[in-house]
Design brief:
This is SET domain-containing protein. The protein is an alpha+beta fold and about 475 residues long. About 30% of the residues lie in helices and about 15% in strands. The chain is built from 13 helices and 14 strands. α4 crosses α6, α10 packs antiparallel against α11 and α11 packs antiparallel against α12. It starts with a strand and ends in a 16-residue tail after the last helix. Bound molecules: S-adenosylmethionine. S-adenosylmethionine binds next to β6, α6 and β11.
Length: about 475
């Protein structure tokens, strides 16, 4: 393996401010250490060879890790994209291609943001829409702040490489990158029987990368005997604030010729709605997906889909109907309403009283109606369980039950509408719409779904006085 070198990628002089500058690693860096010349231990080679050869995304069926490591030579660089800065640690061949690419990059301008970063409760921070985003609408685009190989020769310690990379970022990018979420896990790297028993815990910078980076492809010369993998790791500052959802409303794409990631809407996103992506492939069953998220990303998903009460999941025909009934915990112990058949015994305000009275808790009616739904669901014989929309027209008790459920579902949707809670309003309107049989009713509900603020009582509820 040859030593690492340092350069700067520089865009053509006619376009000042966009460049790739290679920087020398620190004096005490181990990149040029004699260790670098050592071949990786055979068991490690065997594991890595299997992982790369058998993974079709790498398209490298004759990959040989020992030769790969021996033939690597990396360059550490800072990248000035003009509107943002980054740092890269790349195989020399890839680095050279990138240098050429960056010279030719068209000038890109930042567009007015349609989003903000704010608290997303138990998920930490999240990204929220600040204006309406149509389906397939542009949300943002950005260049990476860190670019690194997907697979590094064992001779270059990951922790050292990431330290070099992060610490070569300009101050503002460094400050933002180091404020990103970490998962504080001991080790989320995939384990295998033949892997060394205990890998050291990830460094702070590695943790940031493990928690936030995504896999992207770079243009790699594949006509060399021990060429670099096309897949690389990239860190993006905006994308890193997007939380996962099992029913995401946005998706990112990567353009290796412009080195730009773009986030677009999968469906209409209303102002105030959280912008979410999926961290994994959503083709499997929900339990398997949750397990995969836990194994790969280290968290228990608390997205809207994963916290839906079971009757909601059943009524939407969602793949998440396999969730255990205990998720209805959210509605147990809630208040009930004397105005509803199934909610006698408690003194609750009407909807009109509630939305005009700021001294009442925001959730008082929502909880009451959810509680009522929960009790109806519990009281129905198991054999009659048909879900909210799957009722039998010939059975009087069932259809009465269904009407009651519709009433509660619509009341919950109205409350969320009055609170201006886009995500929950949509969730409950979807269910309410399903049980309406009249076409004209469905049209009205569809209108509210695509533009929640057209709901007549949208945001009418006065804020609670605490
Ligand atoms: C890429 S970051 C997303 C932004 C992050 N919430 C923040 O505060 O910067 C990934 C981390 O966010 C949290 N997270 C993202 N989606 C989540 C979800 N659906 N349920 C629970 N936690 C989630 C997890 O802690 C995860 O490790």
């Amino acid at each position: 393996m040859s030593a690492t070198t340092q350069t700067t990628f520089t865009k053509k002089p006619s376009r000042p401010g966009v460049s790739l500058v290679t920087t020398p690693p620190k004096q005490d860096s181990s990149f040029n250490d004699n260790e670098c010349l050592k071949a990786p231990p055979t068991p490690i080679c065997a594991v890595v060879n299997d992982q790369i050869r058998l993974n079709p995304t790498h398209a490298y069926p004759d990959f040989d890790f020992a030769s790969y490591v021996r033939h690597r030579s990396y360059t550490l660089s800072t990248i000035d994209f003009g509107r943002s800065m980054g740092a890269s640690f790349l195989d020399d061949g890839v680095h050279d291609i990138l240098a050429g690419l960056i010279e030719e990059l068209p000038d890109s301008v930042s567009k007015a943001p349609s989003h903000e970063i704010r608290d997303a409760r138990e998920k930490g921070l999240g990204m929220f829409a600040t204006s309406f985003i149509p389906p397939r609408g542009f949300i943002f685009d950005e260049h990476p702040v860190i670019l690194a190989p997907y697979l590094l020769g064992v001779s270059v310690p990951l922790a050292e490489m990431y330290t070099e990379l992060f610490e070569s970022l300009p101050k503002s990018a460094f400050a933002y990158a180091t404020s990103l979420a970490t998962s504080h896990q001991d080790d989320v790297r995939p384990k295998s029987a033949s892997a060394p028993p205990s890998l050291p815990p990830p460094s702070f910078y590695e943790d940031i990368m493990q928690t936030n980076s995504v896999a992207i492809d770079l243009l790699v010369p594949t006509n060399t005997p021990y060429h670099e993998l096309t897949t690389h790791r990239a860190l993006f500052l905006l994308l890193s604030r997007c939380n996962h959802s099992c029913d995401p409303n946005a998706v990112w794409s990567w353009d290796s010729s412009t080195l730009m990631l773009t986030l677009t809407a999968l469906r209409p996103i209303a102002p105030g709605e959280e912008i979410t992506i999926s961290y994994i492939s959503l083709s499997g069953n929900h339990a398997a997906q949750r397990a995969q998220l836990k194994a790969l990303c280290g968290f228990d998903c608390t997205c809207e889909e994963c916290t839906l009460p079971s009757y909601v999941a059943a009524s939407t025909g969602s793949v998440y109907a396999d969730k255990p009934v205990e998720i209805t915990r959210a509605v147990t112990g809630a208040h009930c309403s004397k105005r509803d058949d199934n909610t006698s015994g408690c003194d609750l305000p009407t909807f009109e009283e509630w939305y005009q009275d700021s001294t009442l808790p925001d959730t008082i009616l929502i909880n009451a109606h959810k509680n009522a739904l929960y009790r109806i669901e519990q009281e129905r014989p198991a054999s009659s369980y048909l879900g909210v929309s799957g009722r039998s027209p010939r059975s009087t008790p069932l259809s009465t039950t269904a009407q009651l459920m519709d009433h509660h579902v619509e009341a919950i949707a109205m409350c969320y509408g009055a609170l201006g809670d886009v995500t929950n309003f949509r969730k409950w309107i979807v269910i309410a719409k399903e049980s309406r049989t009249q076409h004209k009713d469905k049209v009205v509900f569809s209108g509210w779904l695509s533009n929640p603020s057209s709901f007549p009582l949208w945001g009418k509820r006065c804020p609670t006085i605490v």
